[in-house]
């Protein structure tokens, strides 16, 4: 495993971050989830990402149990706040001071830790003054409940505004957690340049485009049983944008490229996002321990210019690059 600094900070994180969205407390049994976490630790992954909303807080609890007994100082534990949790009452959502303060306490209890290394705004809250949100984050940091603050799926303008307020309040934003893959490059025109300027790194989710870039989905054929495309708890909806025959056919053209690089298609996809110097880590989940052992082999891989060019040629115009797609991730009203 190799490690990179997160943003303009002294915090180092593993190039592969273990994430438990759509798995822990949902798609896989707790015993298997714990086995996956143990596998991550065995291969040198030290960074773990979750969120209070995952499986309506159950994912945090499963991760907390799985990491119990580990040396806390050797881990980097990340979680997030924004989406509705619990009974989903009127204040159980958003980035108000009330919700942030109550949510961090709940997350720490479930994760069985006194602090998280990174606390992230899971989306931008259009209904709460940004000043209120950033003041609450500043207080969370001063209370020692979070060491650093990050955001997820914020636009470049929102990142700039948040970073400016954070500076005034005596802390800094150090990370952005957007979707990013060979097929989804919407952060490149605006979010990445703003982040580089302000000292934020990307912790990217879905580097395998919900599993499509693993090559297991074939054009004209039904998805494999038990795969994300068959998951009715949310996975099928998320992957649907990529489940088109032209996309699936182009992905199969990546197979010889992966072979020439000595990588599996999944490893190629993860290694590709790590070539971007603004990416600190790739978020990768698992439903089986073997997947962890396979995916971690992408750490430390350097793809040469020819491989990168061949990937671009294979995917062509199927790549989504429109930066307005980040705007679309921001809820127009606070989620309920």
Automatic annotation (TrEMBL):
Keyword NADP in record: yes
One family name in Pfam for this protein: Aldo_ket_red
Source organism, top-level taxon: Bacteria
The keyword DNA repair is assigned to this record: no
Alphabetized UniProt keyword annotations: NADP, Oxidoreductase
NADP-dependent oxidoreductase domain location: 15-314
Similarity comment: Belongs to the shaker potassium channel beta subunit family.
Protein name: Aldo/keto reductase family protein
């Amino acid at each position: 495993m190799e490690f990179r600094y997160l943003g303009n900070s002294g915090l180092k994180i593993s190039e592969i971050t273990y994430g438990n969205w759509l798995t822990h407390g949902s798609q896989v049994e707790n015993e298997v989830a714990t086995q996956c976490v143990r596998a991550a630790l065995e291969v040198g992954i030290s960074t773990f990402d979750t969120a209070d909303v995952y499986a309506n807080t159950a994912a945090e609890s499963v991760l907390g149990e799985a990491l119990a007994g580990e040396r806390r100082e050797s881990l980097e534990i990340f979680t997030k706040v924004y989406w509705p949790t619990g009974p989903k009452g009127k204040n159980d959502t958003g980035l108000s001071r009330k919700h942030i303060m109550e949510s961090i306490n709940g997350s720490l209890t479930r994760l069985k830790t006194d602090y998280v290394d990174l606390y992230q705004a899971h989306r931008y809250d259009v209904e709460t003054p940004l000043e209120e949100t950033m003041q609450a984050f500043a207080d969370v940091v001063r209370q020692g409940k979070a060491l650093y603050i990050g955001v997820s799926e914020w636009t470049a303008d929102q990142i700039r505004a948040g970073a400016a307020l954070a500076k005034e309040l005596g802390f800094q934003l150090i990370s952005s957690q957007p979707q990013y893959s060979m097929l989804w490059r919407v952060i490149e025109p605006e979010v990445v340049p703003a982040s580089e300027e302000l000292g934020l790194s990307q912790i990217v989710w879905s580097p395998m485009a919900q599993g499509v870039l693993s090559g297991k989905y074939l054009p004209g054929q039904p998805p494999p049983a038990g795969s994300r495309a068959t998951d009715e708890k949310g996975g099928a909806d998320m992957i649907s944008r990529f489940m088109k025959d032209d996309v699936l056919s182009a992905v199969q053209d990546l197979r010889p490229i992966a072979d020439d690089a000595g990588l599996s298609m999944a490893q190629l996809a993860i290694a590709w996002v790590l070539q971007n110097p603004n990416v600190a880590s790739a978020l990768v989940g698992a439903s089986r321990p073997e997947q962890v052992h396979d995916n971690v082999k992408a750490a430390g891989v350097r793809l040469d210019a020819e491989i990168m060019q061949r990937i671009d040629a294979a995917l062509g115009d199927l790549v989504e690059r429109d930066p307005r797609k980040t705007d679309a991730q921001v809820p127009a009203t606070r989620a309920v």
